[in-house]
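User: Hi! I'm working on a homework problem where we have to compare a predicted structure to a textbook description. Could you give me the structure for the chain below?
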Amino acid sequence: MPKYLSQEWMDAGRELAQEFPERAGATARLQYQVKGTPEGDVHYYWVIDSGKIKEWPLGDDPDAEITLSMSYEDAVKMQKGELDPNAAFMQGRIKVVPGSNMGKLMSLLPLTQSPEYKAIQAKINDITDY
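Assistant: Happy to help. Predicted structure tokens:
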């Protein structure tokens, strides 16, 4: 099983995420910063086009429209389905880095509540070594 937050895990997750139905307008570049992992801070990003994750590599995206920062503990809880991303955002557990496009972020948050998103998240969780 791929180790959580490794490139192998991200590649497997991107492949599984292709099952997500196309969503017109769900297009964005999101940068993630996960603080305090066993390997130190981990940065990765998503390039999403019509709801499909086209890119999911380790590193930084200089063209990111939204940058989110969170603790490793909260990232794991969200991946396991133990912490709702919307609740984490509202509680300030996910920090939005200044300069991020808040309108675009708010338009994407409802997608995390869809049955399709939750099913894919569960499949990714099943192949993850934490």
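For your comparison, note the following. The chain has one domain: 7-126. The first strand starts at residue 28 and ends at 37. Good luck with the assignment!
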